[in-house]
């Protein structure tokens, strides 16, 4: 039996996605995501924030660069990936990132107003006239078509 590498996060973007274009017209977007939890300690409310490095590739990166902004609330599904690199002094360093497979923008439609009264939309979203807080779902293009919904 193989293992499971699955991460689910709901948090706020720490900054706008940083977008790079690599060889072969491959797009990659990266940004920090903050998740917070609160608990009581000695009668005081304590908030603890964790920062996660998010990486999105190809079509998902293109959509992220177009719609995600600092401070926006987002649901992300992905997997943990640890990689190594050498710093400027030649020392080997390690970093752990979440490679996103899909994401959903959370909040009211008005939170995603692009400034001229139009609401952001893509082919993968549907608008409902009665729902003011419908999430926008963006799924990685690497998913297999025809998967069962359960």
Characterise the protein shown here.
By secondary structure, the chain is mainly beta. 7% of the residues lie in helices and 49% in strands. It has one helix spanning 58-67, and strands at residues 7-13, 18-22, 26-41, 44-57, 73-86, 92-105, 136-139. A five-stranded mixed β-barrel has the order 1-3-4-6-5. β5 and β6 form a beta hairpin. The longest helix has 10 residues, at 58-67. It is globular and about 55 Å long.
SSE order and pairing:
Blueprint: E1 7-13, E2 18-22, E3 26-41, E4 44-57, H1 58-67, E5 73-86, E6 92-105, E7 136-139
Parallel strand pairs: 4-6
Antiparallel strand pairs: 1-3, 1-5, 2-3, 3-4, 5-6, 6-7
Sheet having the most strands: 5 strands, mixed, barrel
Number of helices: 1
What is the topology, as strand order, of the major beta sheet?
A: 1-3-4-6-5
Overall pLDDT level: 82
Q: What is the helix fraction of residues, given as a range?
A: under 10%
Question: Ends: how far apart?
Answer: 20 Å
Order of helices and strands: EEEEHEEE
Share of β-strand residues = over 45%
Number of strand elements: 7
Please give the radius of gyration in angstroms: 18 Å
- Morphology call: globular
- Class based on secondary structure composition and strand pairing: mainly beta
Parts with pLDDT < 50 across at least 5 consecutive residues: 115-134, 141-145
């Amino acid at each position: 039996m193989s293992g499971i590498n699955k991460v689910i996060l709901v948090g706020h973007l720490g900054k706008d996605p940083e977008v790079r274009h690599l060889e072969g017209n491959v797009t990659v977007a990266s940004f920090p995501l903050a998740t917070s939890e609160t608990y009581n300690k000695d009668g005081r409310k304590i908030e603890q924030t964790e920062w996660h490095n998010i990486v999105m590739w190809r079509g998902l990166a293109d959509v992220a660069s177009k719609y995600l902004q600092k401070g926006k609330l987002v649901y992300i599904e992905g997997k943990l990936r640890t990689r190594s690199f050498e710093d400027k002094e030649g020392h080997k360093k390690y970093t752990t990132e979440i490679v996103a497979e899909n994401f959903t923008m959370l909040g009211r439609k008005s939170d995603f107003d692009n400034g001229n009264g139009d609401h952001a939309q893509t082919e993968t979203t549907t608008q409902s006239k009665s729902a003011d807080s419908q999430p926008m779902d963006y799924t990685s293009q690497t998913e297999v078509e025809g998967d069962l919904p359960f």
